[in-house]
Write a structure and sequence with these properties.
Elements (H helix, E strand, L loop, with lengths): L7 H6 L26 E7 L5 H4 E2 L4 H6 L15 E2 L5 E2 L7 H5 L3 E8 L7 H10 L11 H8 L9 E4 L14 E3 L14 H10 L5 H21 L16 H16 L5 E6 L14 H20 L6 E7 L19 E6 L7 E3 L20 E2 H12 L4 H7 L14
Parallel strand pairs: 1-8, 1-9, 5-11, 5-12, 6-7, 6-8
Antiparallel strand pairs: 2-4, 3-4, 5-10, 9-10
Helix pairs in contact: 6-12, 9-10
Protein name: Glr4218 protein
Length: 414
């Protein structure tokens, strides 16, 4: 009698929905050369198109204030003004929690950065940024999954982790990826944790078919994650009852950091935050954008603190699909734009500096008369991280970023 295969719905009801993404139907051959396996990369994707001109404020550019009479962040020294970084650019005051990283040289920004070609569709722009293969329509995988395939060979069941229930495009592909549920659900018991349920599923999926393989990978990955989180001695970042600065994101960020600290096999991490599409009532130093930036900054600071010494061997990239218009609109917000700011943090970063070719905001310098241009392809930054931090050679970088051959941005220590 053939083995019975449960439908996907049954797996989800048993708490295995997120585990299905761990398995694959094909297995890439991993490269055997061994760069330093203790180096980590974490990507934070801000979905909705962050207003980079409010994050790294060009307070030395008068055109910025002329284009945004209501939305411009005040100059340094003004009430709730930008925090000066280099005399021309300043940091949004809601990101004050990140100042220690900037001052110690562990935080940098690349301004006027973004996609190689404009695309004001959230879906399409995110697709390009997560696949990192513009022009390669057949690329069904994401660049972080391709990165897994060229990292040192490993038999570990958990090498990449993302926070969330749905596998993001950037991690889609043949390499297995573990999912960590956000918030308290990360450590909450599932039906599969019951011995009788587990035994039944183990028997059903004991074969050699791809689904059985996926099931076992998922079971093992969950066990590894649970053991790593249990080793921290706390199930929730705010388990002591005190409010955690940065809210839910900070809790999730700390949890990911704890997992990476206690499990040296986890080399890649991914988190995504939505809510950055500020067409209406964006605000300046107060309002919806400031609230989100404050939570983001506090969460990233908590992540860095929780990593401890591992922070020195970690690179953290914060990206968004595109920027927003230079001019404010009539609804107290900004619309879909082009150039943006990419953030980099970590001990591997040559920080305390703003990179990229700043074009200025004069009308004749704007893309299509409305947007900050892109002077740095975002892949130039990613390629530098791959080469200088993760120590990949040119052949492996080409596998991660197919067809990309432009000059790298020297943002990393070797």
């Amino acid at each position: 009698m053939p083995a019975m295969i449960l439908p996907r719905r049954a797996l989800i009801q048993a708490g295995l929905g997120s585990l299905i993404s761990l398995g694959t139907t094909g297995w890439a051959v991993r490269v055997q050369a061994a760069p330093d396996r203790d180096r980590r990369l974490v990507v934070v994707f801000l979905r909705g198109a962050l207003d980079g001109l409010s994050v790294v404020v060009p307070h030395g550019d008068g055109d910025y204030y002329r284009a945004r009479p209501r939305l411009a962040v005040p100059r340094p020294g003004k009430p709730d003004g930008a925090i000066d970084l280099d005399g021309h650019f300043g940091l949004h005051p809601a990101l004050e929690a990140l100042l220690p990283l900037w001052r110690r040289g562990s935080l940098a920004f690349v301004h006027a950065c973004g996609l190689p070609a404009p695309n004001r569709s959230h879906f399409d722009a995110q697709e390009v940024m997560e696949s990192a293969a513009p022009g390669f329509k057949g690329a069904a995988d994401g660049w972080m999954n391709r990165l897994l395939s060229v990292l040192p060979a490993s038999t570990a069941s958990v090498r990449a982790v993302h926070l969330g229930s749905t596998l993001p495009r950037i991690l889609a592909g043949e390499e297995p990826v573990a999912s960590l549920a956000p918030g308290r659900a990360a450590t909450r018991a599932q039906p599969l944790d019951r011995p009788q349920v587990a035994a039944a599923f183990d028997a059903l999926y004991s074969g050699s078919d791809p689904l059985s393989h996926a099931y076992r990978e998922g079971r093992n990955a969950r066990r590894v994650i649970q053991e790593s989180l249990s080793a921290t001695g706390e199930d929730d970042a705010a388990s002591n009852g005190a409010p955690l600065p940065g809210g839910a994101f900070a809790g999730d960020a700390r949890r990911l950091a704890q997992l990476m600290v206690h499990n040296p096999d986890v080399q890649l991490g991914f988190m995504a935050l939505g809510g950055w599409d500020t067409h209406i009532n964006q605000g300046t130093n107060q309002g919806q954008l400031a609230l989100r930036l404050r939570a983001l900054g506090q969460g990233l600071a908590a992540f860095a603190t929780e990593l401890g010494p591992l922070f020195e061997r970690t690179a953290i990239a914060v990206i968004s699909e595109f920027g927003r218009t230079v001019r404010e609109n009539g609804n107290g917000g900004t619309d879909h734009g082009y150039g943006n700011v990419l953030w980099l943090a970590g001990g591997a970063v040559k920080g305390g500096k703003i990179y990229g070719g700043w074009p200025g905001l004069a009308a004749d310098r704007l893309f299509e008369g409305r947007d900050l241009p892109v002077t740095t392809d975002f892949r130039s930054v990613i390629a530098a991280v791959l080469e200088r931090h993760l120590l990949l050679d040119g052949r492996r970088v080409q596998r991660v970023l197919p067809g990309f051959a432009a000059e790298r941005v020297d943002v990393m220590y070797s």
